[in-house]
């Protein structure tokens, strides 16, 4: 159900993939927190009792008994539970509890493919983006996020398109469009970033723009495409796993 919840938020409520991922993660945190304080084993993603879910939503609201926990992350926890309740209410209108349980089990057991894989990649790319934002100075020496202070360069919008990360050189003011891809990136990504560079050149004709594709693996087709331009470079990433104690 977790992946279904993420897809629903993206398609039905037009939430950004990063927000959808954070909300889904927050539901797991609420499950653990509520289980601890209620002395019951409660997994919200498997909870069929909509009235109990409504009660839990109230517990984490501004005036609820767990309002302090609900206010964590500037209210992310509270908003996540309220959003999940809306999702479940919609489920109640469209299917019965047995169907919901079957969907929940299938979400956990079926291999990731097609649309599920898209949501997974969205989530992973948002994690990668978040890590990169915190390490811009070390990963891209001399550059800063465009619109420093306002973070305008994060998911920079231009002509209805979104650049994952737009950086600006602190001295030359050269722009660097960063495109993030989880897993393997192929030649299509080159076309995507080439379009971004064209849009930037049109909007900032006096400023030089370059691009960099950051991905897990480079497909041969992408490597060949990038050889045709010195404006686009390729980089691969490695993620460091860090374990944190849950509070």
Automatic annotation (TrEMBL):
Q: Which GO terms describe its molecular function?
A: nucleic acid binding
InterPro entries attached to this UniProt entry: tRNA_endonuc-like_dom_sf
Q: Which Gene3D superfamilies match?
A: 3.40.1350.10
Q: What is this protein called?
A: DUF1016 family protein
């Amino acid at each position: 159900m977790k992946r279904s919840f993420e897809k629903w938020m993206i398609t039905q409520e037009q939430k950004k993939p990063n927000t959808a991922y954070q909300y889904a993660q927050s539901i797991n945190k609420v499950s653990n927190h509520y289980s601890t304080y209620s002395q019951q084993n409660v997994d919200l993603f498997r909870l069929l009792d909509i009235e109990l879910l409504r009660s839990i939503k109230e517990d984490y609201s501004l005036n609820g008994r767990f309002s302090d926990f609900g206010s964590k992350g500037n209210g992310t926890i509270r908003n996540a539970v309220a959003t999940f309740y809306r999702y479940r209410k919609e489920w109640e209108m469209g299917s019965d509890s047995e169907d919901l349980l079957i969907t929940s089990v299938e979400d956990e057991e079926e291999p990731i493919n097609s649309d599920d894989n898209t949501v997974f990649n969205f989530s992973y790319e948002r994690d990668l983006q978040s890590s990169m934002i915190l390490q811009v100075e070390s990963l891209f020496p001399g550059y800063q996020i465009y619109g420093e202070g306002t973070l305008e360069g994060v998911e920079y919008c231009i002509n209805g398109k979104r650049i994952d990360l737009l950086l600006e050189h602190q001295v030359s003011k050269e722009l660097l469009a960063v495109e993030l891809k989880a897993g393997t990136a192929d030649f299509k990504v080159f076309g995507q970033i080439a379009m971004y560079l064209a849009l930037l050149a049109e909007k900032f004709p006096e400023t030089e723009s370059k691009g960099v594709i950051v991905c897990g693996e480079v497909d041969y087709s992408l490597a060949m495409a990038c050889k045709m331009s010195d404006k686009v470079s390729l980089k691969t990433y490695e993620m460091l796993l860090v374990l944190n104690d849950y509070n």
